[in-house]
């Protein structure tokens, strides 16, 4: 009497062997770490040289040929572009990078034999700039604008605290502000921290740099926090008969509707999440224009509003625009002005309306 059918016996032998073979393949792949680079991000100047190293941390069983690939051949020159790593040796090779034209590119690689694990970690983001001085100036301007714009909230907070009153403060301005800065924070945090959104931005602007910097993220989050403090003062201090107008309430409802629809479309994969972030930033820019239009023209007075806030806001707006213009020139990336139109628009409208407010305060309504 046979206890096992021959095919059943084959299966009992075949499947363990298959599992053993697969496990050996996995172990073999895991033993090879492939090629690494010494630095994934480098900056070089036009007509100047930089470098990075290709590292073979463990010896290969066979000879491996590697060819470097660039997105934009006219931006940099790489020497060498091809190299052969010999079997059973650990080698490092230095790649010299010479800047040709300003811009941004990513270097990747292909290998022979064509095994993904060999070059999966081999990528370098290269930024080619016109001037090192402009890089430093952009950094300085960015953090000065952050300080000026961030500090600009506190003269008003102090004025409210000293008077124990928010009479004269435009409530529409404050409540539009919290919505605007909350949406601007979503935009900045998304572009600065979420890799999938960064990849989509790079696809649309292959030679452009990410327009959102750390100072942008910190500013928007701090601005939302400072606005919440001002709202708390509006609820606690003397406010007379002031309240949020019906017009502002309707606009806030409309903005909430637009954000909800855009988020739903992004969740349903009808639009990209980058587009959702753009819609958030456009609402912030719209709020900036509206809130200035509503602010002092109707009151014909600047009493209760801190002029220190306006002077600091003017400084921050001017430096914010200057930082973006410097970066656009330094990296030949004028598309970045359109890649983050909200940041440039905030600076532009802040400067224009701050000038108008200063004229109101010192000339038109000085009495």
Automatic annotation (TrEMBL):
Signal peptide range in chain numbering: 1-29
Chief location of this protein within or outside the cell: membrane
Keywords: Glycoprotein, Membrane, Repeat, Signal, Transmembrane, Transmembrane helix, Transport
GO cellular component terms, A-Z: endomembrane system; lysosomal membrane
Catalysed reactions, as listed in the record: L-cystine(out) + H(+)(out) = L-cystine(in) + H(+)(in)
Residue spans crossing the bilayer: 134-154, 174-197, 217-237, 249-270, 276-294, 306-326, 346-365
Stored InterPro entries: LC_transporter, PQ-loop_rpt
Gene3D superfamilies reported for this sequence: 1.20.1280.290
Lipid bilayer topology: Multi-pass membrane protein
Molecular-function annotations in GO: L-cystine transmembrane transporter activity
Compartments reported by the entry: Endomembrane system
Pfam families: PQ-loop
Highest taxon in the source lineage: Eukaryota
Family to which the UniProt record says this protein belongs: Belongs to the cystinosin family.
Name of the protein in its database record: Cystinosin
Organism: Glossina brevipalpis
């Amino acid at each position: 009497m046979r206890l096992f059918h021959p095919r059943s016996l084959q299966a009992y032998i075949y499947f363990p062997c298959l599992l053993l073979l697969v496990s050996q393949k996995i172990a073999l792949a895991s033993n090879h770490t492939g090629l690494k680079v010494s630095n994934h991000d480098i900056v070089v100047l036009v007509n100047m040289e930089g470098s990075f190293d290709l590292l073979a941390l463990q010896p290969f069983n066979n000879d491996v040929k590697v060819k470097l690939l660039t997105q934009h051949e006219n931006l940099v020159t790489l020497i060498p572009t091809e190299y052969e790593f010999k079997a059973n040796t650990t080698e490092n090779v230095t790649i010299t990078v010479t800047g040709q034209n300003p811009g941004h590119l990513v270097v990747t690689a292909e290998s022979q034999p064509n095994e993904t694990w060999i070059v999966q970690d081999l990528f370098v983001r290269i930024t080619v700039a016109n001037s090192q001085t402009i890089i430093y100036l952009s950094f300085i301007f960015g953090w000065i604008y952050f300080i000026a714009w961030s500090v600009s909230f506190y003269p008003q907070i102090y004025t409210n605290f000293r008077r124990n009153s928010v009479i004269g403060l435009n409530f529409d301005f404050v409540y539009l502000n919290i919505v605007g800065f909350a949406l601007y924070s979503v935009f900045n945090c998304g572009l600065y921290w979420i890799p999938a959104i960064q990849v989509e931005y790079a696809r649309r602007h292959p030679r452009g740099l990410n327009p959102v910097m750390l100072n942008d993220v910190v500013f928007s989050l701090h601005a939302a926090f400072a606005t919440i403090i001002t709202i708390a003062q509006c609820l606690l201090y003397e406010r007379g008969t002031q309240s949020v107008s019906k017009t502002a309430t309707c606009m806030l409802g409309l903005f909430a509707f637009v954000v909800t629809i855009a988020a739903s479309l992004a969740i349903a994969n009808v639009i990209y999440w980058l587009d959702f972030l753009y819609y958030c930033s456009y609402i912030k820019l719209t709020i900036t224009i509206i809130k200035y239009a509503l602010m002092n023209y109707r009151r014909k007075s600047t009493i209760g509003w801190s002029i220190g806030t306006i002077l600091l806001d003017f400084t921050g707006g001017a430096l914010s625009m200057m930082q973006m213009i410097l970066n656009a020139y330094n990296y030949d990336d004028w598309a970045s002005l359109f890649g983050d139109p909200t940041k440039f628009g905030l600076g532009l409208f802040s400067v224009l309306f701050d000038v108008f407010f200063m004229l109101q305060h010192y000339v038109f309504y000085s009495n």
